[in-house]
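Budget justification note: compute hours in this period were largely spent on complex prediction jobs such as the one shown. Inputs:
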Amino acid sequence: MKIIIDAMGGDNAPQAPVMGGIQANREYGTSVILVGRGEEILKVLQDNGIQQLPAGVEIAHASEVVEVCDNPSTAFREKKDSSLTVGLNLLKSGQGDAFVSAGSTGALLAAATLLVKRIKGVRRAALAPVVPTGGGGAVLIDCGANVKCPPEYLLQFAFLGSYYAEHVLGRPEPRVGLLNNGAEPSKGTDLQVEVYPLLKKAGDEGRIHFTGNVEAREAVEGAVDVIVADGYSGNIFLKTMEGTALFLARELKKMFKKNLLTKLAALMVSGGLKNFKKLMDSGEVGGTALLGISRPVIKAHGSSDAYAIKNAVRQASDFARSGMIESITENIGQMRLPASAGGKEEF
Amino acid sequence: MKIIIDAMGGDNAPQAPVMGGIQANREYGTSVILVGRGEEILKVLQDNGIQQLPAGVEIAHASEVVEVCDNPSTAFREKKDSSLTVGLNLLKSGQGDAFVSAGSTGALLAAATLLVKRIKGVRRAALAPVVPTGGGGAVLIDCGANVKCPPEYLLQFAFLGSYYAEHVLGRPEPRVGLLNNGAEPSKGTDLQVEVYPLLKKAGDEGRIHFTGNVEAREAVEGAVDVIVADGYSGNIFLKTMEGTALFLARELKKMFKKNLLTKLAALMVSGGLKNFKKLMDSGEVGGTALLGISRPVIKAHGSSDAYAIKNAVRQASDFARSGMIESITENIGQMRLPASAGGKEEF
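Corresponding output:
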């Protein structure tokens, strides 16, 4: 397994991606290719006391860096020698098994779609983070890549999410729910009302395990393994979770910092508190899978530290090893919608 | 101040609404009218050791009860002698200052709209709970009453929410944000893209204090006083908050219940834990205001206990005392959209 890492992407680049790659190499024995400015990568290694490239660690030089101010849709084309473009070309040509970047989501999405391409038959790639739930986590798809979605996109998201939950998370027969404001099939905006029968049909035919509409509250409680949403709603869901967790964590901190007694109490539950924090920490999962692309791509959080990148590399390995893309490719017919039902017959 | 209480609405009726009313009467000196089956109300009073109706507590008999199985849109009409219909008619005729019900949201919404009517010029009534945020709470409007919204509804929600935040919550110049998946004006579905310039214009003209799009995470963190959303998105936001809080509370409980030491720690922070729980407890706020109706109506949570009803009665008094409906009526021209911009010129 060889993972290509965008050494220049993210708030803490190149330090975090380089050292995250090194840690993954040390801990999991994963081979990595660090893509970016060679001299900067070498400096990070030296600063961390690494004089020689460890076995299984390569550097692929790329002189340019995609910046926040670059146009996400065209950055990869305008900066052909960026770590993003060079890294994705390595992925495309098979010189690595997966690509990890903590850089701009928009730029990664555009570049992956246009350089590496989607799986033949998949209409749109989607962002699919694993969100913490009472059921040990669920795949949320989409959460922002596709704000305006015709029904067919959501049908495909249901399949892509199911494959990920089954192959990468190891959930047999993953339960798929359509994020909605009520359980009845009539609930939601026009989009949900139109998507429901498509998912129902796919469920009835045994192509997915559709359990119906799922309200946000039940989704967080763990009612399903896959939460299907358009990018707008999925984003509201994800960001509300993050915000609520942060808000409550801050209030909890206040509570424990109140006086000597409460500070002592914090010490007494310090192990539990650490696990509690981990629960909502995106760095633990590592990153968000870009599903629908013909090769595994993981978007790590922009604020990732080396630990989060290490986890993203592990996740990328799991993704690549799972064979899920091959499985989707073989079964693509299952997630096609006939033209008569608004689908695009020709892929 | 006299508050009309639906004594038969909610999971814990008639016990909770009756005793909630009694408690509000005792603690705040609020006059209340308990609407429902006289004999059942009297029994609750007797069971609680109250032999005589306290001063300021009246009973208005209504023989019927709106049940879960009733059609929400027509229940008030089919059951003319229900506590819902009788109570709202009392409100309409001015025999009370506000109405509180923990019964079916849909039935209350339909009945309030059709019996009590909307404020002249208001296109749709909306559900506007105060959600806990890092900024001490924000008005979320709408959260489920109107799933399909033309842009004008959201423009009006912004006004209704602003009036509530200013008059009832006491926030001068309440900051209004449009719930979205990004800050830029181009973000969101067609709806948000169309609503943004309407809110921007109202803001530029000083009619509201529009601060732009607000992402869900920043909304929870307290960036705004009013969160404007269509009913579908608002519902996702609200229910995700609730779910996340419940999920984390459960994990926290597990942490504290682990062993003797952690149980001791829980005792040491018990005061703080109580406040922490209160933070996310809808019963603390009391209920959700139905904004846009020509008289104050509060929907209490279906699972309300007497304490939650008492708080809802206090909230209803604040609402009635605020003069916000009168203010809206006077300034209704400010929230009209010209027909040329998709508005309904005639109200």
